[in-house]
Amino acid sequence: xxxxxxxxxxxxxxxxxxxxxxxxxxxxxxxxxxxxxxxxxxxxxxxxxxxxxxxxxxxxxxxxxxxxxxxxxxxxxxxxxxxxxxxxxxxxxxxxxxxxxxxxxxxxxxxxxxxxxxxxxxxxxxxxxxxxxxxxxxxxxxxxxxxxxxxxxxxxxxxxxxxxxxxxxxxxxxxxxxxxxxxxxxxxxxxxxxxxxxxxxxxxxxxxxxxxxxxxxxxxxxxxxxxxxxxxxxxxxxxxxxxxxxxxxxxxxxxxxxxxxxxxxxxxxxxxxxxxxxxxxxxxxxxxxxxxxxxxxxxxxxxxxxxxxxxxxxxxxxxxxxxxxxxxxx
Length: 330
Fold this sequence. Notes:
- The chain has one domain (27-312).
- The chain is built from 13 helices and no strands.
- It has helices spanning 4-27, 30-38, 42-67, 75-91, 97-109, 113-142, 147-170, 178-185, 189-202, 208-235, 242-255, 267-278, 283-312.
């Protein structure tokens, strides 16, 4: 059952997505955009598949890298849980996919769920660092100013806050007053134990080699995402440089922070159209490109997620192959 906060976020997301769709319908020529989409080059559409698969594969490898210090889990299984999270994000509100994949992996592999969630938090911070770095580099190289550059600057500040918060969380037991806080917290074991296990997951950020590999895999994932936008643009007659595509991919990613309907419907397209317009693309063709790229991502991740559900046996009453008899995930 959704919490009150999740319900509020869901309603807000639906309102924002509806507003984004209304703005799009009133700012582009929808029939012309659909005509452009209908005439899209099949060859370029087919070429989009490779980068989308590579993107997800690199993200699964990144998560496996962050999980490794806690428990070694086969890549194909981590890939399945990654697709499961994408599927949940496509159909559930409030980005519940992150919780779904954390719960599923913890439940099926015999790992503490708060610990798994801690690795997901580190993963999201690593990903945001790369996204903001891409956006900032693109803004500087393209000489863009105004609202877009201000948004990137705000994102950079947000990343700084996340990094500081993560650093504090990983060394919290060594901070002044930690023992006193620990004694007080000991009175609340139901809170203390999950918090301790969450910090176990967050502590993977204290391993330079692990974080370095995660950053490299994030860079690979975003290179694939950029290639997806380049191919999508070519399919509808928009020729973008890699730097322009990097701005588009990173801008759309940053927009997912804003609450929206499941699958980021509306907000994805509106952000893509506005950024493409900034770099000189025709708005109708940009809308067609956004629809094409978004549809490709949703199709691949949804089909992959459904396959993962079947292969992992996720669901009520399913067995837990990663859990020894008598062992329960914590």
